[in-house]
Amino acid sequence: MGNCCVGSSTKKSRKERRQNPFAPQDGYQTNNQILKNQPKARILDKYVLGRELGRGEFGITYLCTDKETQEVFACKSISKKKLRTAVDVEDVRREVAIMKHLPHHPHIV
């Protein structure tokens, strides 16, 4: 007798293992939100997005300019498609909570 490798008949595909908790169910789009009780203002109504500044695990940060005041900011765009697990969603919520509690600083929006 020797060692052998046998594939499991119950092995899940990569897609099955990494389900997006915010993906459409049964072919229709749900209205799930990552951040509850947030205004649904469209970013592009207030800001002009510019060049890409950087990339992270869940999104891309862009240079953006306020259409009224011409102030320049950084805007982080987070892709819901990349939030595969409940842990990913909690990581994003925790990051937002931390940012909300940062002290006022000219380089932090």
TrEMBL record:
Keyword Cell membrane: no
EC numbers for this chain: 2.7.11.1
Highest rank taxon of the organism: Eukaryota
Record-linked PROSITE patterns: PROTEIN_KINASE_ATP, PROTEIN_KINASE_DOM
Binding sites annotated in the UniProt record for ATP: 76
Transmembrane segments: none
Keywords, in A-Z order: ATP-binding, Kinase, Nucleotide-binding, Serine/threonine-protein kinase, Transferase
Region (Disordered), start-end ranges: 1-34
Compositionally skewed regions (Polar residues) per UniProt: 1-10
Signal peptide: none
GO molecular function annotation: ATP binding; protein serine/threonine kinase activity
Domain Protein kinase: 47-109
Name by which UniProt lists this protein: Calcium-dependent protein kinase
Gene for this chain: CPK24
